[in-house]
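Try it yourself: sequence plus dinuclear copper ion, in.
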Amino acid sequence: MKSSFPLFPDSASALSGEVDLLFILWCVISIFFSLLIAGLILYFMTRYRRRHPEDVGANERAAIWLEVGWSVIPLVIMLAMFAWGARVFFRIYRPPKDAVQFTAIGKQWMWKVQHPGGQREIDTMHVPVNQPIRVTLASEDVIHSFYIPAFRVKQDAVPGRYTSIWFRATKPGTYHLFCAEYCGTEHSRMIGWVIVMEPQDYETWLAGGATGKSMAASGAELFQSLACVTCHRATPGRVARGPALEGLYNRQVKLADGRTIIADDTYIRESILTPTAKLVAGWEPVMPTFQGQVSEEQLTELIAYIHSLGAAGSPPAGGGQP
Ligand code: CUA
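Structure, out:
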């Protein structure tokens, strides 16, 4: 789609072409059938109109091929639309394995973005071109929605849980980042920019940011200062009072009530804030809550740290390394 065509946003991600194709085809199919049906209604209205006051309608039996045809053909078209739509849906919601992990936290009325290297930005997000990027979304207050029209991605940031989106920008440039969920007085001003840069320019930009610590390193510090380390790590002469966190990320965990869950971002966040909600089998409910003591940003840093200790079935994420 040409960027000069004002009805359409720029197309600048690996998936935007596919989403557009789907959208245009759906429109074509809808318009075709709308016109066909409206046309037939008009045609039959004239062709079979009542010509004399004495006319009486007669019952007609439609041919069987006609009945089957107008049931089966739309069914096949619908199923094809469903299959194709589902395929694109799964591609949009399954980030590639090599995606670099960013976080964006919605807050009335701004987006707080953090890079895997620890750099922070407000309402701006610098990203390298052609690199898959996964953005974990959280909210500090109400529901916001992270929306980059040029990349065809939109996802709610919901208080109390994590959601995520991913994209691979294909064209350097500056693109709108919107909040697409009414979130209060200044909602309409919750607008930012995604700046897509050539990899070397991005490196230069990162180097200029001089923030020092990666997310995982900040998380490691918090792990010390919040004294998580006293229970979650056995030392000579002291038994750990909580499960070890090495290799926990994305692993299956057996709970005290017999259920099995995956230790994903949402689970780890919940376990920090409400430790008794999903107690791991074999451990006492002795962990205090950290509700009110850690911010959403610090939670994402703690999770980045736990991720850096190793994930199930994969080596520690490159982006999460201190
Ligand atoms: Cu945040 Cu609208």
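One thing you can check immediately is this: The two ends are 41 Å apart (CA to CA).
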